Amino acid sequence: MTFTQLNLSPALLAALPTGLTKPTEIQCLAIPEALTGSDILALAQTGSGKTLAFGLPLLQSVDPKLGHIQALVIVPTRELAIQVSQALVEVANKLDIKIVTLCGGVSQTIQEKQINNGAQIVVATPGRLLDLLKQQVVDLNNVKALVLDEADRLLDMGFWADIERIVSYLPNDNLRQTLLFSATLAPKLELLTQKLLNNPKRLEAHVANSVVSTINEQLFLVNKGNKAKVLQWLLEENKWSQALVFISARDSADAFAKKLKKAGLNVAALHGEKDQQERQRTLSDFHANKINVLVATDVLARGIDIDALPVVINLDLPANAPVYIHRVGRTARAGKSGLAISLVCHGEMKELDAIRTLTNRPLELQTLENFPVTDKPASGDSKRAPRDKQANRRTAKKRKAGGFNKSKER
Fold first, then answer.
1. Nearest to 302, CA basis, from 140, 16, 79, 104
2. Do the Cβ atoms of 392 and 375 come closer than 8 Å?
3. 39-53, 86-100, 255-269, 333-347: which has the highest mean pLDDT?
4. Residue 292 dihedral angles phi and psi, to the nearest 5°
5. Which of 215, 214, 210, 217 has its CA nearest to residue 363?
6. Is the pLDDT of residue 220 over 70?
C-alpha cells in the first residue's frame, strides 16, 4: 500500500517528505479511520510510525486560513513534544499550517507570542498547557481533534488528573474527535479511555505489550557492585558506534557517566534535573553522533528517535514493566535490527518476573565468563535460578552472535 491509497488530499501528498511512499502498518490502519472522524484507540510499538499515523489526518483536517487552535496533541515529556513537532513541521510548513510546542523549560513569553501568531496545532505537555489554560493564554474552544500520544506513559507519570482538567476546556466530546495512541495497554488505562472515547475504533498493529521482533534481547546476571565494570567492558569490547544506557536514578546517571569519562569514553548524562537548554543540546549532540554513549533516565525512554541506534543497555531494570518495552524500543526502529542488553542482579528478580509476565516471554539469563556471579540470591529468588539455567541450556544452540564469545549460559 502507498500513501496515495489512504484517502489523503493531493496537497498533503505533495507535501510529504521526499522518499516517503510506503506507510507503516499502523499508518495503514489509523489514517483512513481517523479521516472518517471516528474516535480511535490504537496500539503500536515504538518506532512504528505513530506520529504520522495521527499527524497526517490532523494536518488534513485543519484550515490554515483560520488563526485559532484546531487540534491538540498531548504527550508526556518535553523531548517527545519536540520530536512530534519536528516530525510534523516539515509537512505543515508546506501547507501554511503553524504548529506550536508548549512545554516546560522554555520561555512562556516566547510561547505566548507563537500562540498569538495564529497556530492551528498545539503539541504540549500537560503541566505547561494547564498553566497556560489557567492564565487564559490558550483558548481551546475551537479544538476539533484531541490526540493523547504515549497514553500509557501519561498515566504512569500521574498526568491523568491533568488530562481530565484539560479536557474540561475542550468542546463537548460529541463535537470533538479523540485519538489515543499507546504502545502498551494496562487494564487501568483501558478503563480510563472509556471516559474519553466515544465508540472508538480499536486498532492493533501488534500484539499488546510486545517487543519488536528485530530486537535481539540479551540479559546477563551480574553482581550488583560489578555493573559499572561490566558496562565499561561491554562498551570497550564491542566498540558500538553509539549506545544508549538507561539507569533509574538521576544522581547515578551523572556518577556512571563520570566513571566512563575517566575510562576515556565519549559520554554524557541526561536526566530531568538538567535544564531544558542543556538537555536539548546533549540530545542534539547525540543525534549528530558527537556523543557515543548517553547515560539517561527514563526521560528518554520515549521521545528519542536515533537512526540505526545499534544498542540499548539497561544498567538496571525499570520498576515499571512497560517502561522496559519503551527503553528497548529505542533501537531497531523503522524496520531496522538492534540489540538490547540488560544487566540484572539478584535483587532485581521481582522486576524481571514482571517484565516476563507482561511480555509473555522467558527472557533467559546468561552469565559473562569474565564476571563470575558471587552475590547470593535474595530471599525467595533461589527458586528462580534453576528455571533460568534450564531455559538457557535449551536455547544455547539457537543463540545469535552478539559479540559475547566470552559468555556462558546460566
1. 79
2. no
3. 86-100
4. -90, -35
5. 217
6. yes
**What's CA 126's distance to the chain center, in Å?**
17
Sequence letter at residue 166: I
Residues 362-378: tens digit of each pLDDT: 999 999 999 999 998 87
For residue 9, what are the contacts with CB-CB under 8 A and spacing of at least 6?
A: 60
Looking at the fold, whether 75 and 120 belong to one and the same domain comes out as yes
Cα–Cα distance measured from residue 144 to residue 158, given in angstroms and rounded to the nearest whole number: 25
Reading the block at residue 344, the C-alpha cell is: 540484572
Q: Where are the beta strands (DSSP E) in 3-91?
A: 40-43, 71-74
Do 190 and 223 have their domain in common?
no
Confidence of residue 145 (pLDDT cuts 50, 70, 90): very high
140, 272: one domain: no
Q: Measured in whole angstroms, how far is the alpha carbon of residue 74 from the centre of its chain?
A: 14
8 Å CB contact between 105 and 78: yes
pLDDT tens digit sequence for 223-281: 999 999 999 999 999 999 999 999 988 878 888 899 899 989 999 998 878 887 888 88
Residue 9 belongs to what domain range? 3-204
Q: What does the alpha-carbon distance between residue 29 and residue 200 come to, in Å, rounded to a whole number?
A: 13
